[in-house]
Design goal:
By secondary structure, the chain is mainly α. Helices cover 69% and strands 0% of the residues. It has a domain at 129-234.
């Protein structure tokens, strides 16, 4: 493994032989079930992230950590979250590592991130349904940056629950026309989650609000269907 790790740190780049990567990946797969060896592999992979390795090598490392990563990997990956170039691949790994340590790292990076990195972190918090992030995400739903606002309302819908539902209702009258489609989708998603979690009364309140005059017909139809399904799922 030492040779493959050294190649990642010093020479590997796009267009070069993938033999070292294939050999290392085979070694990782063969180590499944051997936690001692997997720990050694994680340590070696993390050393690549902390080196001057090229982007291609670090991307490979993040793909592998998305499979074998754990809490020990979070600090090194979190360092990359605010980097416009490296944030996406760090989030790819973090999104697939279970546990609150990842959520805390994402929330800590959120106020420091900018541009696409910030939007990406919001997306990941939504994909992880991190309800601890509802408050901070709700603030971003009012952003003048429409791409960020869209990401925030979508994330709130995926987070679900009463707090997210209230946040989405509160921003409903203040978003721009470009954000409204994302907001409608988010409110429907939030309501669907509430039904699945047993909060049919809360879901029906959302569905009912989406049947109002002025709401696009497709959204109204989906809301009526949701109300019907909420009743039939009792």
């Amino acid at each position: 493994m030492e040779q493959q790790i050294e190649a990642l740190k010093t020479t590997y780049d796009w267009g070069q032989s993938r033999v070292p990567l294939t050999e290392l990946s085979d070694h990782i797969r063969a180590s499944f079930g051997n936690e001692t060896e997997l720990k050694n592999i994680r340590t070696a992979l993390l050393s690549v992230l902390d080196s001057d390795a090229k982007y291609a090598a670090k991307q490979y490392v993040c793909r592998e950590l998305s499979i074998i990563g754990n809490d020990d990997c979070v600090p090194a990956l979190a360092k990359l979250l605010t980097d416009e170039k490296l944030s996406d691949m760090a989030r790819y790994a973090l999104e697939r590592i279970p546990g609150p340590a990842v959520d805390k790292a994402l929330l800590a990076a959120l106020p420091r991130a900018e541009g696409k990195a910030k939007i990406g972190i919001v997306n990941t918090l939504g994909n992880r349904a991190c309800r601890d992030a509802v408050s901070e995400t709700a603030k971003l739903a009012r952003s003048s940056d429409e791409a960020l606002a869209c990401a925030a309302v979508s994330a709130l819908g995926k987070m679900g629950g009463a707090e997210a539902a209230n946040a989405l209702a509160q921003v409903a009258d203040g978003v721009s026309e470009k954000v409204k489609p994302a907001l409608y989708d988010a409110r429907l998603t939030c309501a669907d989650r509430m039904v699945a979690e047993g909060d049919r009364a809360g879901a029906r309140k959302i569905y009912q609000s989406l049947t109002a005059t002025g709401v696009p017909q497709l959204v109204r139809t989906a809301a009526l269907r949701g109300m019907r399904d909420a009743v039939s799922s009792r």
